[in-house]
Amino acid sequence: MIGRHKFQLDTPCLVIDKDKLMHNLKTMQHFASQYDKNVRPHAKTHKCSKLAALQLESGACGICVTKVSEALELAKNNICGILITSPIVTDYKLSQLQKVVDLAPDTMVVCDQLKNLEQLNALAQMTRSRNIDVIIDIDAGIGRTGTDFESAFDLASSAYNMPFITLKGIQCYAGHFQHITDKDERANASKALLQKAASIKHRLEKMLGISLIQTGSGTGTYEIDCQIDGVTEIQPGSYTVMDKEYLDIDYTSAHFLPAMTMLSTVISANHQEHVTVDAGLKALYKDPTKPKIISHNELYYDWDYFGDEHGKLTGTNLPQNGDVIEMIVPHCDPTINLFDHFYITENDIVVDIWLIDLRGKSQ
Length: 363
Ligand SMILES: Cc1ncc(COP(=O)(O)O)c(C=O)c1O
Hints:
The chain has 363 residues and is an alpha/beta fold. It has 2 domains: 6-13 and 255-355, Beta Barrel (Lyase, Ornithine Decarboxylase, Chain A, domain 1), CATH 2.40.37; 18-241, Alanine racemase (TIM Barrel), CATH 3.20.20. Helices cover 31% and strands 21% of the residues. The chain has 10 helices and 17 strands. It has helices at residues 18-34, 49-57, 68-76, 91-103, 114-127, 149-161, 183-208, 222-225, 244-247, 332-336; strands at 13-17, 38-39, 63-65, 82-84, 108-111, 132-137, 165-171, 213-215, 233-234, 260-268, 274-277, 292-293, 299-302, 311-315, 324-328, 341-346, 349-355. The structure holds pyridoxal-5'-phosphate. Pyridoxal-5'-phosphate binds at residues 42, 44-45, 64, 85, 173, 175, 178, 218-220, 235-239.
């Protein structure tokens, strides 16, 4: 496949334009460094150790993951500064966490409950290894994970006082603000929330006499969050490759380019009004937002009950059997999780193939 034009690739497949990807990585690093903030990008988007390594080379202070199985894969690939952004509570997963910490000792994990703190403390005590580095997760108002604001201070103090835990900081990730279309509305919501979290961090730092991390933020709010005193790092994910949902929101300055596209081929053209392509639910994660076709004008994709393996194209000047269409996917994270490889292109020619090695690691 190396050396081929991208339109000669077997479809459906995911293609990353390397120049655009590097632009996105550098732009995020540059923006955050202007405000003296670290970037710990979230690998939940790209699920690729190679891309994580590139982010570290570009200046990231570490890499976030959601699941311990993702962390283990990154640790095996010598990725450092891992933060697991979701709690780990079962015995089996705690044993996996220990493996991660053995391979990558600077790994941190979030915690949102006293009982879970006790589990982590017992794990480190039992294995007689180093302390476990913990970030206290505060619920930003989604109700997904995190302790409430009122309990966060006490939980962090408890973590500090546990002999086999090292308190590293707090996390407050406002997923529900990331796609608010209006930039002022989004900025106001994020600012109020993260300032509230910062006040807890400042109180803890004053009482304990240590410096703490404040982590959170995503591609939708990084601009405002970088300007908040107290925030020490941001953890954006989608900015690497972007998607239609993020391209649709309003930014102060349009920073990121759609680096990743999907290619799909017309496989049946027997109707006046539509043709059928080879990308359905199993290739293109279904969201209310539709993909944006960039290879053809006035052509529209819909899943339209064509099922797992097929999609429907309508519009003017319908393509013919065998024609390849290129589109920006609605939601990059769950779409990437459906593929094994990224085809990396320069000037539309395939120059490399990267394994999506964290793909399917949902445990
Ligand atoms: C905890 C956490 N941090 C960071 C991100 C990255 O967000 P985004 O892809 O919006 O940049 C996510 C995404 O869901 C997340 O759940």
